[in-house]
Amino acid sequence: xxxxxxAAPEPSxxxxxxxxxxxxxxxxxxxxxxxxxxxxxxxxxxSRLGVDAVRLRPEWASLLPALGDxxxxxxxxxxxxxxxxxxxxxxxxxxxxxxxxxxxxxADIDLRLFLGGWASVFxxxxxxxxxxQRSIQVFDHQGTAVHKVFLTEESEDxxxxxxxxxxxxxxxxxxxxxxxxxxxxxxxxxxxxxxAALREGWAALKDTHHFFALLKKHGATRTQALRxxxxxxxxxxxxxxxxxxxxxxxxxxxxxxxxxxxxxxxQIHSGPVQNLAWMDTWFNVLDPEFNLHLKxxxxxxxxxxxxxxxxxxxxxxxxxxxxxxxxxQLFGARKPGIPEREDWRTLAEExxxxx
Length: 355
Fold this sequence. Notes:
355 residues, alpha+beta, nine-stranded antiparallel sheet
């Protein structure tokens, strides 16, 4: 579906409207405030330039490694239905020569970056009831937040101003050149997919990272491929099983990998989950270094997926919304070259498949 980009109000008027809204709803997050005001979150952020925000140059190959100077930070990546927050250090940053892809592979902050969709970036120093909150916030060409990095009480405060000044853009105007999303291709009918060839290609996988290429080769969407793969490779589960799996992983102290992403960034937590809590219909992980916030009613489909690899079969749980967009993926914690954990596989296989 093509998103229509509407002209935003003048920045000064937009900022004033936002402040009036905040006075009425002090706890309203910027993402929700932008939706309420019918603008993108990037436009809302740009409206605060000259107040508590600075536009930075989108020089990812030098800016991203420089975030390591900030020390212990909190990285946040989200989609419409799930928020992933991981504390740690921005280390081991690499950007491909073409500038379109990047990686952060430190032990705590683990990211896959699709930089071709990254458009604008701002440094924000906001006064809050808890004190000064400083962050670097990245947005795509549609004005949607891609990735945010927040300073913590343990961050290197002295590195903030030098970083902001080093990457300060000469252009501090609030105008943004937003683009509508390209029209998505209509999915092929099941009858147009060569199911036998899809299953054969699936069985021949040697690396889970090759799965996207398999989908592209056969012109299948992700959920379509899961439907057509057959029960040996993919089984539908009751969405209510997803929080139960996380609770069981916590109770049994099974370290897992939690993948949450959007079109331009995927963030990964590897380790245990322990402090789990419901808040209304949101299911949360509230650990000291890892927080997850999952809007459970948005999970329209849940699948147990098995993919062959050179390390043996790799089992995942994958949750999708009503539009077939991936919300969250869960794996057993592992490194390449190491077989899947038996305790994770046992847990992942316990839930009964839907008929």
